[in-house]
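PROTEIN DESIGN WORKSHEET
SECTION A - STRUCTURE
LENGTH: 150
TOKENS:
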């Protein structure tokens, strides 16, 4: 049985947690025994790839992951990215594999990543990739359109 909180990184000063909720695209039924592989894209620490499995409710235990120092997100003028980005690969028997790129974890916070998996139509269905775009703090977005005051 998995520990209450998986300590993937021991002695990591700055870290956050991620919990995944994995469901079927048909009926939103929780998927038990889905295997999630986690790799870090960027961040303040190196991390070996990790693997966790969902329980009977389609959830993982909270997973402790590295994150940049909390003060990065408390200083608006900071040019340092205040979150770590992870790539998740989710596999479950009878379902099309899912790959999520750009899942974010902030220090001292729990990120909840929902995953909806489609039933496998044919053997060997291609992996469905979901790209999470840049956070509005660092992305290149057009300015907000002014709204009329009420």
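SECTION B - SEQUENCE
RESIDUE ASSIGNMENT:
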């Amino acid at each position: 049985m998995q520990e209450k909180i998986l300590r993937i990184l021991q002695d990591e000063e700055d870290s956050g947690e991620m919990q995944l909720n994995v469901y079927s695209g048909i009926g939103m039924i929780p998927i038990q025994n889905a295997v999630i592989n986690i790799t870090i894209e960027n961040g303040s620490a190196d991390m070996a790839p990790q693997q966790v499995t969902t329980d009977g409710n389609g959830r993982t235990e909270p997973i402790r992951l590295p994150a940049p120092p909390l003060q990065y997100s408390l200083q608006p003028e900071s040019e340092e990215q205040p979150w770590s980005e992870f790539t998740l690969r989710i596999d479950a028997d009878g379902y099309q594999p899912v790959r999520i790129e750009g899942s974010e974890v902030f220090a001292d916070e729990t990120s909840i990543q929902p995953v909806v998996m489609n039933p496998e139509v044919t053997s060997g269905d291609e992996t469905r990739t979901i790209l999470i775009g840049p956070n509005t703090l660092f992305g290149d977005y057009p300015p907000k359109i002014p709204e009329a005051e009420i």
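SECTION C - NOTES
Strands lie at 15-24, 35-42, 50-53, 63-66, 83-91, 98-106, 110-117, 128-131.
The first strand starts at residue 15 and ends at 24.
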